[in-house]
Specification:
The protein is an all-alpha fold. It folds into two domains: 2-73; 78-116. Helices cover 80% and strands 0% of the residues. The chain has helices at residues 2-7, 9-26, 31-48, 54-62, 64-73, 78-93, 100-116. The longest helix is centred in the first third of the chain and has 18 residues, at 9-26. The radius of gyration is 23 Å and the shape is elongated.
Amino acid sequence: MVELFEQTPALASAYVPRTLPTAIFDHNPDRATDQTRPQLWPEQVKASGLSCFDKFLNTLHHWQDGILNYFKGGHTSGFVEGLNNKLKLLKHRCFKLDDPVELFRRLWLDIEGPQLWA
């Protein structure tokens, strides 16, 4: 790893700041501390002059409340995302089916089929 950092100083300067957000959320005593600590990291990154974190900093700024909610209570939108994915798949597989019986049959097989053959 040392040889890699000697060859690419820019990578070496970005390596330490990339590990700090994980360390911030590894010891989160309370939400008030969680809200102040992540604000210190972007200031450090901006002061370092690194531009490789710009997109991430923008995302962090826009979604900070949701990110903090995840670390506080483990709340995610996984169920909704999974349901949306299944609905899109069903819609794609049933495209241009005009016969309602065939449409229902395909939907039923997609939903119940895996349990029938398990």
